Amino acid sequence: MQITRRGVLTAGGLGALGLMGWGGLTQPLGNTVLTKSASNLSDRNMPKPYRTQFQPLPRLAPFDVYTDDDGVPVERYSVTARTGTAAILPTLTTPIIGYNGQVPGPTISVERGTKVILRVRNQITGIVPPAGHHAEHGLPLSTHLHGHASAPEFDGYADDLTFPGYCKEYVYENDQPARSIWYHDHATHITGTNVYSGLAAQYHIHDEAERALLPQGEFDVPLTLSDVMFESDGRVRFDDKDHSGLWGDIVLVNGKPWPVMQVKRRVYRFRLLNASISRSYRPYLSTGDPVHMVATDGGLMPASQSVKTWRHAPAERYEFLVDFSTYAPGTRVRLRNASNPKNVDFDYTGEIMAFDVVDAPVDTSDPTWRTIPQTLASSDVMSLVPALSSKTRTLRLKRDDLTNVWNINETTWNDVIASGYTKVLADPALDAVEMWDLHTSSGGWFHPLHIHLVDFQIVSRNGKAPFAYERGPKDVAYVGPDEKVRVLMRFERQSGKYMVHCHNLPHEDHDMMGQFSVGLTPGQPDPHDPLTAAPPVLDTYPADD
Ligand code: C2O
Ligand code: CU
Description:
By secondary structure, this protein is mainly β. Helices cover about 5% and strands about 35% of the residues. It is globular and about 65 Å long.
């Protein structure tokens, strides 16, 4: 039944329309909706769009702040990964795993140049969500700060595992330009269930360039998007359809189903993270008006881009401005989802959230209140040109149909493990510029390909210019069905071993992940060996709450 339904859904998908312009369409254009729900909730317990108040993300405070001997400001934070409960459904509580037991986790917000030491404590014990997934002895963890050029031993290498009762201190320099990034679990072969159960949170680096251009404070609004499905008792249900992906029927923004946010009549900045483990979105405003893209995964774009819709894969971050000053008080503007091929859609997955425009005083002395800046910021990565590239490599993303295992150039993470972590897909020299062609060469799936360590520039898609909204620093490329995406980057800052993988997490876990080495000579010692350079330690700190 499920197989048939999926076949029907994808066959009639958005293929022909997918790359076309948008016009003033106001109807949902997702894949055909043939089914009510993936959740086993009763009608009474099933949430509906726009009945829940929007919740801002919680913020994490440092437990220690000081200046080190080199004059570098340092902030120390601690999060404890543990089980908890969340009020996602109006009528039932949901067991989750979260940083500090919260879903989504608490946001860390720092100034560029401030060093962060993040202690992650694993206190996950007992039977853990999702339903059907039993881990009586708790789960091992590895924490990745996605979008930050971390040293390999602090990069959440999948097998650098912190077991229950242990903790690890991750060191982040935060010396890259301002950006919206996120920390999430990356444990080998269980990243999908760990993130789905709640181990994900935003992390922001601020700087002068961004502050001079874009709204701040209450008008700078992080949004974490995810989709989920439930058992009848409120537990989350996990079904990745033979590792093809998980498509929930309930869309959450900051952990609430289809919330409504009140907005003043001015420009807002949204930082939209797609933390869904498989689903990609095609957001658009119900008014038909454009949004103004200002930043991509790695921070400010060279110039803002007005777009009516965009493809938004798991792990991608887009920052955009919406000008609510033109709407009459009482207007409801919905952020809707037109979906993309190879997603499974349900009754309400065409909705994301709503903004209710209110008649409240606006501070017009704040210059960002009605400004859409055109020129933003140049960056090293967006100044790269293909002529600088010393090597072109191809990464083929596909599934082995005999074994039902996803791979990159026929390599899986199990192959990396079997090689004693020596096998690499690429071995650029430190500071080398390379061009990589990312290619989905079988089955017509989409794969959000994430390259650790670097920011890259998307040079072309199938030989044509990239989409307007992706003309900024990126670390995830949406590689759509049968697409070839050419990316250009410099392997700078750090030598060592880094992962590269699909960010559809069931694909990553089974087993579409490999690694590359930067500036290493085979057989020579690696001072940043991610398995030995900074191992986790027994957690002897006092209980934190
Ligand atoms: Cu967001 Cu390697 O991951
Ligand atoms: Cu994939």
